[in-house]
Structure formats: structure tokens, C-alpha cells
Protein: Uridine 5'-monophosphate synthase
Organism: Anopheles minimus
Amino acid sequence: MVCALKLKEMALKLFEINAFKFGDFKMKVGINSPVYFDLRVIVSHPDVMDELANLLQEFIVERKLNTSGTHLCGVPYTALPVATLISIKANQPMLIRRKEAKKYGTKKLIEGKFNAGDKCLIIEDVVTSGSSILDTVDDLRSEGLTVADAIVVVDREQGGSQNTEERGVRMHSLYTLSYLLQTMLEAKRIEESTVKAVAKYIEACQIRSDGSFIKNGTTVVNDLSRTRMSFEARTDLAKCPLAKELFKLIATKKTMLCLAADLTDSEEILNLADAVGPYICVLKTHCDIIADFSQQFVRSLQSLARQHNFLLMEDRKFADIGNTVAQQYAGGLYRIADWADLVTVHALPGQGILKGMKSAINVDRPLESRGVFLLAEMSTEGALTDEKYSTATVKMATEMDTDFVAGIVCQNKELVASPGLLQLTPGVKLQEGVDGLGQLYDSPERVVKERGADVCVVGRGIISSKTPSETARIYRDRLWEAYLERIGAEKNGAAN
């Protein structure tokens, strides 16, 4: 049996390194909690991580879950270091589950050597609803693996055990929140009032795996998750005035479609914009590839935007120091600030790039009529926009110049938590795949429901069509149906 003294000692160590803390914290599921766990900090404390892995290994043996041939799989990403240590200590094979399948090479979702029918034991750090465990279970089972048990460090006792049990997975927890509270109280690390407050919270708020929660006996739909909220509901949460306008436009016109008008002839662009205008919310340009760019072209494009009610985005991807970007934005041949409602911007130069752009805005078109999308991820193979960079980009959007940032360009719904920001995702095509230059494509359904996109960029899928107008309508309808399914709304027919 796992030593009770070692369990208490580890609990105190976790508290001392701030792996859990008390206060008022917003949870991933959209509700506030008086206690928060962050076991990611253990990677900075090798001794704690090593001892925790020892305790978990003893626990696994005690529960007789270390049967011959059983693989280990840590839920990405926090549980991966501990799962790796257990694998080494127990000489037990390990699998790695990707959050998203590769679009190149083997295209694997589960990495490691295994056969259909093999058993797999899941390792997780903290469980609230159990949704992360269930996501991992689904992916493992889709590869033919058998999953019946999950080992977790901390069970918050808010429904996770019941939710996983309903899906055929027994959850075994090293600690429960109640045990940790009692241990901290006995060690005089917290007051009894804290214990009572947290206990009351646990009893009053049980969370289901679908994101809803039972509060004081009543089931409540979690309306604070960005991808579960309607565009209408998110409008008032946007801090950027142009984001509010785009939310309203999308909801009114019932389209999430952004056309990438990557053509080199201005007349061809205008003809295309006129044809697909009724079906799009944004038309995206690369003005520096237009061979005959002129201010007359700009005026004609603006006229079409007003006629068909869509916004103009210049995909300039600004990426220089503030002073230079201010000149690129407002001056030169293209005078982008005069006509583009939205522009794309790299976060690499830091906050100065946004300050520079704002300084170039004139009184004729005030700040309220402009917005930027910060580029956090790209849709090409081998892009260098890693997790650290993407996270820092989102932080810029949520903590700085929030009146100017309309959204984030990315591929991952987990990046954009704020319902007031729009997620713009490129690389959408009716047929998924990779082109000859490494551009990755996802279906409309996948990019909306799995990747979390709010605005979906389609280029060659429409441009190369013999009937661009009809093809744009198909994209619009499929994207909107996927959105309705995402928020759990009734399908009341496609837009006219």
C-alpha cells in the first residue's frame, strides 16, 4: 500500500511549490473556483517530479494495473513528463497522443509501437470534468487500443470520475481535493474557513463531460466557452469595435466565409468579389501581388464591399519596428490604412508594432473602424510558430491594445479562449490534403468544429472553380451548418 506518510509529505511539497493555490480563479470550463491546480510547475523541481512518479508507480502496482504488455499514455501536455518517468522506472512501454494528427509523413495521431487490441493505461495530472481523459480515450480507441483505466494525481471531485465511468474508464486518483484540504488544515497551511468554502463549492458545482454543470441541483449549460457561444452572444464581449461589427455581420449574413482573392489582375478581383460578395463576410487581398493596383481599383472594391456587406482585409502580415510599420500601413503606393478594415500582423516585434500602426491612423478613418488579426500560427508545414510564441501572441491580444485587436490567426481552438476575440483560420477546402508547397487544407466541418474557427479562409477552392458563386455558396452553407452543430443550435435552414 502507498505509504500514508509519503502521501502527506508530497501533498505539502506540492503546496510549497505553488502547484495548487487558493483564491478566485476562472476555470477552463468557464466557472470560477476557489482552488486552482497547476502541476506544470513540477518540471522546475526534479526532486518533486521524481518522487511523485515513484508514488504513482507504487499506486499503479497496488491497483494491479501494471499488467504485462500494457502501454502508458500521458494526457498532453502536463502529464507527459511524469508518464515518461513512470515508463522508465517500470520499464513499461509508452505511447504519445498528439493533440492533432500530423498532415505529413506517417500522419499518426498516436506515436509509439502497438497493435490493435493492446491495453493502455492513461496518466493524467488533474481532473475536473474528465473531458481531457475522454478525448485521449477516443483517440486511443480509434487506433484499436483498449482503455479501461486512468491514473490521476488529483481528482477535484466535481464529476470527473462519474463522467469517465459512463464511458467505460475507471478513474483511480492518488489524491482527492478533500484529502488535500484536510492535510493542509492539519499542517496549519490553510484556515478551516477555506476548507468549508471549497467543500461547499465542490458540493454545489458538479461538472458534466459535455461542458454543462450541475449547480445547486440544476443543470446549467456552460455558455462561457467561446466555441459554444453564438456570435450574437459574443458581440457584447468584444473590446475591439470592429470585432463587434464583424460579429454582427457574420450573425446577420450567416456566413463565416473569408475569400482569399489572391489574383494579380484588378479586374479579375472585382469580378470575383461581385460574384461571391453575397456569400462572404470578409474579402482578403495581397495588394502587393496586383500588377495594376490603383486607387480606382480600391474605390471600386470598397463600393462592392458596401453593396454586398463584407469587410476588406489586407493580408500584409506586418512584421517590422513600429516606425517602419506606421509608414507601410499609411503610406507608400498602397495606402493600406485608407481602405483596409482589417490587416494581419506578426507579433514578433512585440507591442511596438501595434503602437506604430495606431499612430498612423488619421481622423478620416478613426481607430474604431480598424482592426488587426495577430498571427499566432500558420497553416504550412514546418512553420516556426511554436507553442511559446503562439501563447505570447494571444497574451498581446488579451492584455494590450484590446481596442485594436479583433482576433487571432491560428489553427488551434485552445489558443483563443476569450469569446470577444475572433479566430481566423486559413487552409479550408472541400477536399483535405497538402499542396505542392506545403499548404495544409482541412474540410469546412473540421476547421469549424474541431479547430474552432470563426472566420474560415478559402482561396483556390473558390478561385479555381468554374462557378465561383455557386462554390462560395456551398462553402458558406457547410461552414454555417458546422457552426450550428458546434453551438448545439437547431438547423433552421441555410442562408438565402
Notes: The chain has two domains: 4-204, 231-487. Residues 433-438, 490-496 have pLDDT under 50 and may be disordered.
